[in-house]
Amino acid sequence: QVQLVESGGGLVQAGASLRLSCVASGRTFSTYAMGWFRQAPGKEREFVATAINWSGGRTYYADSVKGRFTISRDNAKNTVYLQMNSLKPEDTAVYYCAADLGINSGYSRSEEYKSWGQGTQVTVSS
């Protein structure tokens, strides 16, 4: 497992942008699939985006964020990013970084990921 620490959350107005970062410990970061999930109050944790392979070439997004959010990774910095543009009030949630080896078709299921960060709050006002 790896240790994950997220940052970059905050309070913004609708239409603004934020970039979340997740720094991972360990020397094998590039071998891990890295994902972002979010959880709004009273709702279940939901998939946002994932970068499965080391190059970031295999990325997947939830339909609700497709075209607005971009996941990327910098293996030299052991960091995965989530660039969030055109934010909407419904994007308000705690955002969690997740990691695991061997993620494939189950990339959108939270139970597939063994390592999780502590979360960072994103609040979008209307």
How would you sum up this structure, described in words?
This protein is mainly beta and 126 residues long. It contains no helices and eleven strands. It has strands at 4-7, 10-13, 18-24, 33-39, 46-51, 59-61, 69-74, 79-84, 93-100, 115-116, 120-125. Strands 2, 4, 5, 6, 9, 10 and 11 form a seven-stranded mixed beta sheet that branches. A four-stranded antiparallel beta sheet has the order 1-3-8-7, with no helix packed on it. Strand 4 (33-39) and strand 5 (46-51) form a beta hairpin. The termini are far apart. The model has no long low-confidence stretch (mean pLDDT 94).
How would you describe this structure in keywords?
single chain, 126 residues, mainly beta, globular
How would you concisely characterize the structure shown here?
The protein is mainly β and 126 residues long. The chain has strands at residues 4-7, 10-13, 18-24, 33-39, 46-51, 59-61, 69-74, 79-84, 93-100, 115-116, 120-125.
